[in-house]
Design brief:
Chain lengths: 186, 153
Amino acid sequence: MWRYEKRLQYPINIKKKDLWMARTIITQYGGPDGELSAALRYLNQRYSMPDNNGKALLTDIGTEELAHLEMVGTMVFQLMQGATIEELKEAGMDRNFAQRGKDLFYQDAFGNPWTAAYIGAVGDPIADLSENMAAEQKARAVYENLIDLATDPAVIDPLAWLREREVVHFEMFRQLYDRYRNMNLK
Amino acid sequence: MNYRDKNFPMGPDAKMKPLQPGMMKMPEMPMPITGTLNLFPVDEGFARGTIFRGLYEPYKKQVAMKPVPTTERERMLHDVNKYNFALHEIRMYLDNFPDDQEAISVFANFHRNYIKAKNDYEMRFGALDIEAPNLDVAPWNWTVGSWPWEGVM
């Protein structure tokens, strides 16, 4: 089961509205390499991990990704806060507004809805962990793209923090992968 | 990457392994004490996004701003955040290296600090979860105060 804690994993305090930035950051909410994909991927792969250490690591990282999902959602929410109809139109968000008001949605930067097709699960720990390592590197690259696009330090700081988490998770997965490779699993 | 020193890139039980082409570069760091987990101080690790010195690889625009709490509420929540983050990092490490007694001691120490910081915060500023010590009074404490995405740290 899960228990909610009423706090962000890392604080976010964005005061400057920036709808264009919100439109790009949304991909880490519901895009292929975003936090929803990461959380659901790891939490789904846990069942076929061959030992308790693997089950623990996928549970713990998958759980952290849910906290990251909340952080990314918070960034998008704060970047859009107080936006007028006119500002939404100028930022090309009139279609979002027509369909969803100011709700967030699990979509990528192009507006494609999140799909379970983003997630691999082949019942093979080596294959699954390889996918996870690639996923962490792709997410790191996307965070770097977003950092390049951002100008507000209040946006860059949490993006850089989330990027560093991808570096750490990659390494944790790599250590598990290396150990399993030496175990003759089949 | 390393948790301890350059001779033990894979953790406490790993054999010495030279850097291969294509492996990520080893960041500059002061020579750590062998046999001791090479950790940032809790505040610094929280600001950087990892408590493990060997895993910190900043990007070009990464500034690692230390969150500067401006109110008592922010200061107390910062303590909860940083100790919980440190706990989580050590927990993931122990998933891979469960026999590391030193890491288990570090975990226990962070855990004591976390529980204290959490209870102190909750008594003054409201419940963080269902185990909060003050969920026995009206108004219902869970609904007191702002929500995390509303920008009060």
